[in-house]
């Protein structure tokens, strides 16, 4: 059994997280249905993280726990030790260090909450905040953690870091960053945006794809209009030049969305 991390000595809940240390968080793949490399395959075994916490603090901070710990949604199981036990699994992308930070914030352990986190940890925290619906409880820290990263430019292509930015900015309600990040994804992506199994809202994914289709349609319309001008010799170019351009535009205009 793992050593219990004590968040609240008088707590009445034990949270257990089963996780695979060898599992890569949000691995980047060109296609979502690509089989993972052998190095990224989940280990058959799991490690455990266990924390003693207060149900009152959890219910006040998190809509998820408020529902779980009351009424017909009582999912936590009371054990022989007199405590309720809640088991979490890393299928949702949960990380033990991120969970520890989140629980300390929720319980007001301000002196041990880090004043800075790396970009990867910020994304891991975003996954948990989205799942547990505890945005308000972490709002002050989120603004502190995210500020250093806003001083740097966003990635200029559709990449893993850009998708992490879309996750972070959508979960933490940073509309300016989200707008800029999705614009880059629209201009530099092809086909549905990879989500890396992160909890990015389907409306964002759909909007990126629809905007991409719209842009392609506009480009093809412009090519077709230009083709008509070439056919009518309205460009002012030589016959040879028009012939080459017409051939190229005909090929491009045959593309279907």
Helix coverage percent:
40-55%
Q: Structural class of the secondary elements?
A: alpha/beta
SSE pattern: EEEHHEEHHHHHHH
Let me know the average pLDDT: 82
Indicate the overall shape.
Answer: elongated
CATH topology heading of the largest domain: Potassium Channel Kv1.1, Chain A
Total domain count = 2
Q: Poorly predicted ranges (pLDDT <50, ≥5 residues)?
A: 38-43, 251-257
InterPro entries: SKP1/BTB/POZ_sf
Protein name: BTB domain-containing protein
Overall description:
A five-stranded mixed sheet has the order 1-3-2-5-4. By secondary structure, it is of the alpha/beta class. Helix 4 packs across helix 6, helix 7 packs across helix 8 and helix 8 packs antiparallel against helix 9. It starts with a strand and ends with a helix. Helix content is 49%, strand content 10%. It is elongated. It has two domains: 197 residues, Potassium Channel Kv1.1, Chain A (2-Layer Sandwich); 47 residues, no CATH class. Strand 4 and strand 5 form a beta hairpin. The C terminus is likely disordered.
